[in-house]
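Q: A reviewer asked whether we had any structural model of the full assembly, not just the individual parts. We don't, so I'm hoping you can provide one. Inputs are below.
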Amino acid sequence: MELSFRWYGENDPVKLQDIKQIPNMNHIVSAIYDVPVGNVWEKERIEALKSSVEKEGLALSVIESLPVHESIKLGENNRDHLIANYKESLKNLGESGIKTVCYNFMPVFDWTRTDLHHRLQDGSETLLYDHEYVQTIDPVTTNLNLPGWDESYTKAEMAALIEKYRTMTDDDLWENLGYFLNEVLPVAIKHDINLTIHPDDPPWSIFGIPRIIRSKESYDKLVTINNAKNNGICFCTGSLGCLEENDLPEMIRAFGDHIHFVHMRNIKRLDNHSFVETGHLSKDGSVDMKAVIKALKDINYKGTIRPDHGRMIWGETGKAGYGLFDRALGATYINGLIEGVNQS
Ligand code: DNO
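A: Here is a predicted structure for the entire assembly that you could use as a starting point for your response.
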């Protein structure tokens, strides 16, 4: 297992020079952020990103994310053109030596929280999801600060998108995911890329629109579409851990051949589907982090792991969930767990 760290590019307040000082940190997870979703990622841009990472002695090992256009998720008429662009981007990434590409199939919102500055008892700031609140609001008229929201949409565009999704069932979304994967997987296989789907976060439907990647059953369905190992999973402990019935070690053992990227993060489940993000330690949240690392060791996992969201500590400010300090603490904790399971 290789440790990695997410870096948001040259505008990220967290610098590569700082990241490489984290013990055992050699791999970077990044993306090109200024190409509109649906357009091709040109080779020169990929090479430029790669060389800015390599200049610091690090490797660009994972692309997170190569985003999927909403028209593909909706199965609209223009999807073939957008899928052709996706294939072209994959080919370009493959030719630049990228082996792991992360994406998600969450309609509109990606990861959703209701409070980005929730104060924990120790004075640190963290992210919180209040399910009751989400059930009472209209995302179009409420000024929600959504961390994963594509800010290029206007409110009117958001409203129109939500309307379209509200007429879709989970099965419709599965059908569109199947169509997409049947098209892009041959390209991924040809270029030796593992495509990894991120689970829905939170792993249930919100705002009346479908979400489908949330459980063992979802992964059973996913691998039925295509059982190639390239039809992969980004195993995110924080997202999947929101559902108590998700037995994370068991899921790792069941789908090991498809797991090529891991997000390690802890959450504490609160009442009625709400949850708060905690520090990485098992005892601080609901996820048994050691059991997860142990399961990864059992499947002989060779891919990358990144410490996922951190709290804001020691006065740091910046992108919610993506400061340096607490993610670095998470990395050292994961290092310790790996060393521990390797010796036992
Ligand atoms: C949140 C992230 C997600 C993830 C995408 C992958 O912190 O884990 O936004 O990058 O869902 O496509």
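A: Points you may want to mention in the reply: Residues 64-65, 102-104, 110-111, 148, 198, 263, 309, 321 surround D-mannose (CB under 6 Å). The radius of gyration is 19 Å.
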